[in-house]
Task: inverse folding
């Protein structure tokens, strides 16, 4: 099996492997709209559209994507996102314990 990282940063599955970014990034298109203000702070709403830059399924290939992208393609069994995140003492993500797939 081949794992291709379609995120902009390395993904470390602790105790297993680190997957370098492939150079391509799968994303959800987004549309931002004004939604008023609160205490003079502008508010916006965001709606998400089609997934961009996610290759077609290939036998034996698992694509690592963001949780947002994975959730946007619930029928795709060949995508996974980092799960059970591990953080350092400053709260920065340093890895994950697993990859989450669509069921």
Result:
């Amino acid at each position: 099996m081949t794992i291709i990282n379609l995120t902009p940063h390395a993904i470390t599955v602790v105790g297993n492997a680190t997957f370098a970014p492939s150079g391509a990034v799968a994303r959800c298109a987004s549309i931002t709209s004004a939604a008023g203000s609160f205490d003079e702070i502008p508010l916006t709403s965001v709606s998400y559209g089609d997934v961009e830059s996610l290759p077609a399924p290939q036998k034996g290939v698992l694509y690592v994507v963001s949780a947002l992208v994975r959730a946007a393609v619930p029928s795709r069994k060949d995508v996974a996102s980092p799960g059970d995140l591990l953080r350092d003492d400053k709260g920065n993500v340093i890895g994950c314990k697993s990859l989450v797939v669509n069921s």
Summary: The mean pLDDT is 97. The chain has one helix and eight strands. Residues 51 and 73 are 8 Å apart (CA to CA). The radius of gyration is 16 Å.
